[in-house]
Amino acid sequence: MTSSAQVYPRPTSIIAALFPEYRQRACRYAYWMLGNDCDAEEVVQEAFVRLTQRERKGDLLECESRFAGLLFTTVRNLSIDLLRKRGRRRQVPLSSVNEPTTSDIDQSRVDQLQQTINRLIEELPDNHAEALKLKTSGDLTYEQIAEVLDCTKAQVRTWIFRARQQLAKKLAEQGWLDPYE
Amino acid sequence: MNYKNEKQDNHCFQFEPLISAAIDGELEPGEVNLLESHLDDCERCRHQYRQFEEVNDMLVATERQNVCPPVRLPEPVLLDKTLSKTQIQTSFRSPRSSAAPSARTLLAGGALAAAGLAAVLLTTPPEPTTPPVEIGDVVSPFHRLAVLNDQSHKDQDSLTAAMRMELRTLLLETRSLDGDENELQQLYDKLESLQRRLGELERNPVSHSE
């Protein structure tokens, strides 16, 4: 019998593999929830710690989809806890209420658009806004969003559609989009 | 609005959610054909499609504009810190929290906690209980660790200093306690040995060079 040692791939953690990519996405979502970059980073770190502990206890996150759902659920719950503890609602990120700089006209226009969009998102019903942000910040699928928000995939589809519809209507009213003649 | 337009609107109303889902790539196979054939015939829905696409582009663009938490350290390093935090959290359980009624309980609890803390410090890196997370999987250029290790060392220094004070207090308390002499002596010896080892550790810190 030949003794050719078979090399097995070293077991790698899904958390380790996905950490760089998902950290950014989760931070963007947490930042939107909390309106503060330090808090956002703290919450995301805590979420990763919790998932790592969970993995070490043997609860293996067998696929990326499950990992993403759990990560964003944890980030959301931690953010809500933090907001409750501090007795405040979600805040509009500070960057969105700063006056646009006048030095660069294009940048000023982008800033203006950013302010408008952030304000319009704040005006949306909470579940519509959250579903939309999980889609745009987290780049999650409808199924993953449904897991995070504890609802059905059909509801997510409707909420995101309503959010887009509302945004399109308001943006058209304010001259950012061409209205339908 | 005439009857024909109203009828058309009602018809389009059914397709609007599909347009939004199509932009996210979330249509069921059957729905794709349905929407495509409707869009071929309906200018209004084509406009809606373009509008939703534009909204999406704006959201993505402003998403990038929104201040994202700065990446203060390279990603692998953050994971490294995250994982070491896990290790400390699982091993370190408030040595001072045992404000028990009896001084004996306090002493025993404190000594155990101090011993646990010493174990964490003296046996770096601790053995992972399960193998899944390998830092090596994500930390490629180790020289980048030098930057953050400076902070890690500072943290470790503060931890060591706190532990030294803790041990000194416990030693003093042990001396003043009444009780089983042998047992107390054993405890005292143990604490003294820990203090010695801690002193050695402070003089020759564990090297983190990789």
Written description of the protein model:
The complex is a heterodimer of chains A (about 180) and B (about 210). By secondary structure, chain A is mainly α. Chain A contains seven helices and no strands. Chain A is about 65% helix and about 0% strand. The termini of chain B are far apart. The chains are: A mainly alpha (about 180), B mainly alpha (about 210).
Low-confidence stretches of chain A: 1-11, 94-103
Q: Show the largest interface.
A: A-B, 60 and 50 residues
Radius of gyration of chain B: 32 Å
SS content category of chain B:
mainly alpha
| Share of β-strand residues of chain B | under 5%
Residue share in helices of chain B? over 70%
Major beta sheet of chain A, specifics?
none
The biggest sheet of chain B, with number of strands, parallel, antiparallel or mixed sense and barrel status, is:
none
Percent range of helical residues of chain A: 55-70%
Annotation, overall tally of beta strands of chain A: 0
How many domain units of chain B? 2
What is the element string of chain B, with H for helices and E for strands? HHHHHHHH
Total helix count of chain A? 7
Spatial gap, N to C terminus of chain B:
75 Å
Q: What best-fitting shape of chain B do the alpha-carbon axes yield?
A: rod-shaped
List keywords for this structure.
heterodimer; A: 181 residues; Arc Repressor Mutant, subunit A; 7 helices; B: mainly alpha; 72% helix
Summarize the structure.
The complex is a heterodimer of chains A (181) and B (210). Chain A is mainly α and 181 residues long.
Task: Please write out the topology.
The complex is a heterodimer of chains A (181) and B (210).
Chain A lengths: L13 H21 L2 H20 L7 H22 L19 H19 L2 H11 L5 H8 L3 H21 L8
Helix pairs in contact in A: 1-2, 1-3, 2-3, 3-6, 4-7, 5-6, 5-7, 6-7
Chain B lengths: L2 H21 L5 H13 L1 H23 L9 H17 L11 H20 L12 H4 L6 H31 L5 H23 L7
